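Hey, can you fold this one?
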Amino acid sequence: MKKFIILFILLAAVCQAAPFLDGTSSLVYSSVHKVFHAAGGAQSKVQGFVFLDNGFTILPDASAVFDTSVPVFGAIDLRETGTMTLANDLMLGSNVTLSSGGGLSGNGNSLILGNNLTLPTTKILHIMSDTKIDGQGHTLTMGELGQIFVDNNVTLTLQNMVFKSGYKTAVFPPVRCAGPGSKCALDNVVIQPTGDISFYQGQLYIHNNVFFTGTSALVYTSSQSSFITSGATLYFDKSTTFSFMPCTMSNQQIIMADVTSKLVLDGASLNVSNTGMRLNNGMLLCDNKVSLDSVSGYSLATLTTATSGYFLGSYSGDGNYMKIRWHPSGKYFACVGGSNNCPIKVYAFNPITNTTTTVCNASFSGYPFALDWSPDGRYVAFCGGQLYIYSFNGTALAQIANPSLTNSANAYNLAWSPDGRYLAVGCNGTNPSLQIFKFNGVTTTGSVTAAITNEVSNITWHPSGAYIAFGYKTSTYNTLIYSFNGTSLSQVSDSGNPGSASYAADFSPDGNYIAIGGDPGSAIIYNALSLSSSICTKAYGAVVRCAKWSPEGKMLAIVGDNNLVRIFMFSGSALLPFIDCVLSPAPTKIMDVAWHQTGKYLAVMGKDATNFYYYIVSPGYVSPTTQALSKSIVFGCKFVSSAWYGHPSDVSKRYNETDYINKLIFDQGGALTVTANGATFGDPASGVVKRLSITFISGTTINCVENGTTTSSAAEVAALTGPASLKVKLLSGARVEIRGQVYDASV
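Sure. Predicted structure:
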C-alpha cells in the first residue's frame, strides 16, 4: 500500500509539472497532440531537436517557450489566452492550422509559415512583443471579425505574404494597434481586403513593395506619422482608394524617407479630409485614370434621430448612472442603467435599415452603474457596487471574473486601458479610491490603488495608456490627471474647482486635448496633460453629463440635463458654432453619448420620469464651397519666396535646385483629374501656387477647365486668374485641363 501511495505521488508530481521537451542532446519525437499548462506558475518549454508531429494546445493563461529549429506540424490551439513565446525563429509545417486566438510573443523572432494559414472567425491573435510573421510567399487570411491586435510599444512585421481580410467593414480592421507606440511594418506584402481597412492609431512602415488591391479603401485615421522607407513603394491598384483622414490637425503624417520613396496610384483615388495632406520628399506616381480629391473637407449640417428604443420602464432610484457603449466591431452596442436589478443588454444595429434587435442580456442583482468593452471586443466589464467581467462571443454573455475591491469599496465607474491589459475602476465609500486591475483574459491579477477624496463620476484613459483622468462630483479639484506606469499612480495635474462637479472628461484621439464638463453647464478644452489654464470654453445651458470626441478628433458631442444632443466643431483653438438634435421621445436628462467608430452615428442614453431610452443619432455633412490651401493636397516642403508664377524653367531665378524636391510623373497614357476642392499646389501662407515639378510624357492627358473653357497647348498654358494660378510646361503631345475652384487663403 505504501509503495502504491509513493508511486501515485510521483505520478501526480510528473503530471502537474509544466512540460519540458528537451532535445538538446538527442531528438525528441512526439506523435501525440501535446498539451502545455502552467502548473505551479512554471513555463512549458520546447528546446533543441523536438519534432511535434501532431500539434499542441496551450491552456488558458499558460505559456510555452519554443527554442527549436525543427518545424511544428498539426493543429495549434491557444485557447484564446494561451501564449506562444519564441526564443528563436519558429517554422510552421505545411499542415498547421489555428483553431483559436491567443498570445504570440516573438521577442524579435520570426514565425515562418510553411503554407497558407487562416485565423478563424472572431478570433484575436494578440502580439505581445516584437514579432515577425514571414509568409514565405503564402497567404495569411483573417476570418470575419478575426484580428491581429498589437500591444502598445510593440512592432509587428508582416513580410513576404499575401494578406487577406475577411470582414466587410472598416470598423473592425484585420490589424489593430493598441496605442500610439504600436507599429505595423509591411515588407513585400500584397493586401487583398474584402472591405475597407482602417488604421486607427500607431504607425505604418512600408518596406520594399506593398500592394493594396481589390476595390476597397485603406482609411488612415492615426494621429501618428507613418513612413515609406528609402527605396520602398506603396502601390494602390486600380479601383482602390487611399483615404487620408488623420485624427489630428497635422497634415504631414505620411513621411517619405527620400527621393526613392514612392506612392503609386494606378487608376486609384487619393481622398483627403479637411486636415489636408502634404507630401515632402519622394515621388507620387500616377498611371491610368487617377482622382485626387480633398472634398472630404466637410461641415456639419444636420443631426437627426435614426432610431430609438425603450430600454427599461418604471425604474427605481434616481437613474443618474447610465452608460451606452459601441462594440469595437460597430455591429453592437450595450446599455446599463442605474436602477435596481436592471439587466445589461446588448443590441445589434443595422445601419441599412436603421433598426436594432436584442442580442442578449445579463441579469444583475443591484444597481448597475457603468460598463465598457475591452478594445478587442471579447470582454465587457460592468459595475454596480461589485465589479464583473463577462466574455462576449457575438451571441451571448458569460461571466468569467468577479474581482474583489480594496477596502470593500463600491465600484461606480470603470474604463479599459487602450491595450486591454488594465481595467480602471472608480470606487466610492468610506475610503474612495481609484483601483487599476491587470487582466490576462481569464482573471485579474494585482491591483494598483490611489486614495482619493470623493466620488468618481467619470474615467478616461489617454490614448498612450500612460495617463488616466477622472472627475469628482464635488471636491476642491473636480478633474485630476494621474500618470500610470503599470505599477504605480502619480498625480500630474488638476483643474482646480471651476464648478461644483465634474461629470465628463475625455481625451481627444490624438492625445493633445482633454474636454471636461459638469455643473455649471459648460464644455472646457485643455491641453491634454495640463489643466492649469483652458484653451476655450463653451456654454451648454444645462449640466453637462458627458462629452465625447469624434473618432477623427474634430468634433465634440455634449449631452446633459435637457433633451438635446449638441455637437461642436473644434478648430484646435476654439469650439465653433454647433448643431443640435432634439430627441424624441423627449428625455428630461441625457446621461451618456458614444460615437460609432465611423463617425456616422452616435449612441445616446437618456431618461424621463419613468423610463430609460436609447437613441441612435446620425450626423449629416456638407462639403464647403471654399477651401484653404492649407487644407488641400500640397506637394513640396520649402517655400523661399513670396510669389512665383513661372513654369519650371524659371526656378533658377528664385530657388536653389536642391529645394526643388517633389515630382509628379505621369506615364504614357496616364490621366489625372483634379476635382473641385481638390489638389492644390501652393503655399498656405501667401495663397499662391509655387514650386512644383511636373513631368508630362507625350500622350498624357491632364484635364484643365476654367469657366467652362478647355485650354490646351503644346507649349505653355496661360495663367489662370486668381491667387491660385498655375503654369505648367507641356511636352509635345501632352494636353492639360484644370477645373477652376475658389480658394480662400484667409480661411
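The chain has two helices and 66 strands. Let me know if you want another pass with a different chain boundary.
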